[in-house]
Each structure stands twice: as C-alpha cells, then as structure tokens.
Amino acid sequence: MSGELAMEQKVTLHYAEPLPPHLARFGEHLVAGQLLGGRCPRCDRVYVPHRGYCPLCVVRITEADELTTTDRGIVASYTIITPVRYYGQTKTEPFVFASVLLDGTASPLRGQDVTGIPHEQLRAGLRVKAVWRPEEERTMKGLSARGGSGVDGAVTSFEPTGEPDVPPDAYRGYEF
Prior knowledge:
By secondary structure, this protein is mainly beta. It has one domain (21-170). It has one helix and eight strands; from the N terminus they run αββββββββ. Strands 6-5-4-7-8 form a five-stranded antiparallel sheet, with no helix packed on it. Strand 5 (95-102) and strand 6 (109-112) form a beta hairpin. The longest helix is centred in the N-terminal third of the chain and has 11 residues, at 21-31. The radius of gyration is 19 Å and the shape is globular. The N and C termini lie far apart (51 Å). The relative contact order is 0.19.
C-alpha cells in the first residue's frame, strides 16, 4: 500500500460520568471534612465509601443506613513505590500506597499515602489519622463510580497518631 500517509498523534480523552447518589453524598461529606459510610442493615458492617449495597449480604444500603465515620484507623497493608520514569509521570520520589482500615469499618480505603514517618519505619498495624486539606481546597476530585476510595480531593495523606500499634488480628483479612 504505497503512497499512504500515516500520522502519529498523542490523544487525551476525558470521560465524565455522573456519580450515583450515594457517592455524591460521600463527596459532599468529604468537602465538609467528614467520611460518610454505609451500615449494612443485616450484618452491621460499615463500608467507606459504601457501594449502595452490602457485598456479603447482597442487601441495599440506603441513605437511612448512612453514618459519619472516624478519620482514624490502621495501616492494614502498604507498598512503597519507587517511580519509574515514563511519559507523563509526575512523581519522582518513592511514595506509599497503603490500605487504611478506618476504626469500626469493614472496608479499607485503598491507595492512601502515609506521611510523617520514614518509609523504613512504616508497618502494618500502625495507627494513623487523616490529614485534611484546608476547607477551601477540598474537592471531590478522584471520586468515581468505577471504584477506588476517591478521597484525594479532600485528604492529602494519613499520618501516625502516636498511639500503640494494633495486633495483626485487628486487620487480618484487610491486607489487600
């Protein structure tokens, strides 16, 4: 096929999807400096953010089942990531990707940064609390119906509380 022309072009696509009502309420609470969870009406497990249903009981979690949760919890698991340079990479220094199990909840917030502690001292069982952005800077950025915790627009990271670590039985099963 001689004579054909080919052109290479980098293209960026942005998709916008409306948030389901339960995630919109979660986002509104984030901007107000609160974490909204949903309690299963059958088993009493609390999920943050909730999905509109309990994944174990397969029953609906409604607005009547929502509650404000604490912003304190434990590091259930973590990975320290050393960025590899590639086109579009914005991070250049090692950073933490942690699952934080908030007190009284049954679903960890995944992909959270942990600051205020050297990486070599980070450990599962570490008690942490949210570091909130200033009120005027909080947004719903990162919140998506496609999954993930989506708290980045309101919470910059989690930092140690100084409380004693918790034993592995407190976070066993939430290490993902």
